Amino acid sequence: MKLPALAAVVVAALTVLTGIASGSPARSTLTTVTVDTLPISNALPMTLGIQKGFFANHGIEIKTQTLQSGNDIVLALANHNGDVGYLGYVPMMIARTTGIPLTLVAASEVEGTSTTDNWQDILVKASSSIRTPADLAGKTIAANALKGVGEVVIKAALQKAGVDPNSIKLVAIPFPSMRTALNNGQVDAIWTPEPFLSQAVNIDGDRIVMAPGPTLGNYFPNGGYAALSSWMTANPTAAKSFRLAMNESLQYAQTHPDEIRALPGGNVPHLPTWSATIDRAQLLQLAKYAKQYGVISSLPNFTQLFPSDVRTGFATGLLEATVTKLGLVRVVQSGKIAKRLDPGKYLLIVKDQSKRHGFALVGPGVHVATKVSKAGTYRFNITLKTGLYNYTNLRKPRQAGAFSVS
Questions:
Q1: Bridge partners of 109?
Q2: Does residue 195 have a cis bond before it (omega within 30 degrees)?
Q3: Is residue 195 part of a domain?
Q4: How do the pLDDT tens digits run along the chain, 406 residues long?
Q5: Which own/partner contact pairs does 240-245 have at CB distance under 8 Å and 24+ positions apart?
Q6: Same-domain pairing of 330 and 387
Q7: Domain range for residue 399?
Q8: What are the Cα distances from residue 121, in Å, to 167, 212, 242, 270, 272?
C-alpha cells in the first residue's frame, strides 16, 4: 500500500477511535429538530451548544424559527410548524389547560434575585415621574403578549408590592419594538428582557423600577422547551437526545459566561441563570398566580406537563450562598441564615461576586466548591444527611460558617 493511502487509512481509524473514546460516536446521519424560539438572550445556550457540537454528538441537527411570543410558539406547535418550542411556563400551562397537549422536553432558565442581577425588568423613561412600583398604578405597561408570563408576573409582583394589579393596562408589543413605543410615549413602561433591557438602559437612558420575577421569589422559574405529546411519543430518541444536549448546553453556558457574551446578543451585563432542573413548588405557585389572574381557568396536570424524566433531580429545597467582593460568605434559606435544616435534596445556588475568593461546602456526602479565580453563579444539586456542614471562603478559611441537618 502506498504511503498516502496508508495515511488516509490511519487517519480514518484514529477518527473512529477518537469518537468512541470521547463518548461521541460517529453519526452517519443527524435527526433534524426544528425549534421555534424567541429573539432574546435566553436561547443563547442552544446556540453555543450547537457551536460546541453538543447536539451533533447526540445525533441532532437544530433548525430554528424565530417568533415573537410564547403564545405564538404554542400556536405554531399546535399547527405542527416546528417540533420543539422555547416558551415561558405560563404559555405551556395555557396550552395544557385548553386542549393543546404540550409536554416539557427540557428546562432552560430562572430569574435573578433583584434589579441588580435580573435579566428582565420593568423600565420607564429617564424623565418619567414613575419612581417606585407604587407609581405604576393606573399606568400602561407593554408586555410581549397578553395572557403570558409577563402578565402573570407583573400583576402578581404589583399585588405583592401593594399595588392593585387591575389598575394597570397591559398592551402587547413585540420585544424589538418596545423601546420605540416607550420613547414615543405610546406606553408608560415596558417589561423587557436582555438584550433589549441593556439597550434601553445604555442607549436610551431608561430606568429600572421593578424586577417582577425576583419580587415573587429568588430564582423564580421562567421558561423551557416543550413539544406536543404526540411528537414526544413518535420521536422518543430525538426527544431524549435533545434534552441531553440541551442540559449539557445549559450547564456549559452557566459556567462559561464569557463564551455566551461573545455571541450576538450575549454581550449584556445580566445573563439568565440557566439550569436543567425545575422547582416544582415555585412552578405550582406560578400556576396559582396564572389562575388567580384569569390566564388559566384550572391548574394544569403537572405530571403530564412535567414528565418524570425531566423532573428527576429537581430540588425539594433551595439554599442560597453568597461570596461578596470582600470575601464574606453566608448561606441562607428563605432569606434567613441557615442554622438547622431538614434532611433531603436541595438546590444550592452560589452567587460568587469575587474573582479572588471562592466558596466551599463540606459535610456528610457533600463536597462542592466554586473556582477561586472566577466570579459567577454556580448551581449544585446536593443531598443533605444528618450531621454538620461547614462552608468557607477558600482563600480565607476563618471567614466561615456552618449549619446542622437533623
A1: 223, 274
A2: yes
A3: yes
A4: 443 443 333 333 333 333 333 344 445 689 999 999 999 989 999 999 999 999 999 999 999 999 999 889 999 999 999 999 999 999 999 999 999 999 999 999 999 888 888 999 999 999 999 999 999 999 999 999 999 999 999 999 999 999 999 999 999 999 999 999 999 999 999 999 999 999 999 999 999 999 999 999 888 999 999 999 999 999 999 999 999 999 999 989 988 889 999 999 889 988 998 988 787 778 999 999 999 999 999 999 988 998 876 655 444 568 899 998 888 899 998 778 999 887 877 889 998 888 888 899 999 999 999 988 788 888 888 988 989 999 999 888 777 899 998 8
A5: 240/309, 241/31, 241/55, 241/58, 241/59, 241/60, 242/33, 242/55, 242/58, 242/60, 242/84, 242/105, 242/106, 243/105, 243/106, 243/309, 243/310, 244/58, 245/49, 245/54, 245/55, 245/57, 245/58, 245/60
A6: yes
A7: 317-405
A8: 19, 7, 30, 11, 12
> In this structure, are 224 and 107 located in the same domain?
yes
Please check whether residues 140 and 189 belong to one and the same domain: yes
Same domain, 92 and 233: yes
The neighbouring-strand residues paired with 379 are 349
CATH number at residue 380: 2.60.40.420
- Nearest by Cα to 224 from 38, 61, 48: 38
DSSP lists the bridge partners of residue 45 as none
Is 105 in the same domain as 134? no
Nine cell digits for residue 230: 404526540
R_g of the chain, CA atoms, integer Å:
23
| Distance between CA atoms of residues 278 and 134, nearest Å | 31
Q: Please list the alpha-helical segments (H only) found in 308-369.
A: 308-311
- Which CATH number covers residue 144? 3.40.190.10
Of residues 249, 251, 252, the one with CA closest to residue 241: 249
Domains contained in the chain, number = 3
Task: Give the single-character DSSP code of 195.
Answer: T
Are residues 302 and 321 part of one domain? no
- Considering the domain architecture, whether residues 126 and 184 belong to the same structural domain is answered as yes
Helix axes 89-97, 70-78, angle to 10 degrees: 40
Whether residue 234 sits in one domain with residue 105: yes
Question: Is residue 183 a part of any domain in this protein?
Answer: yes
8 falls within a domain: no
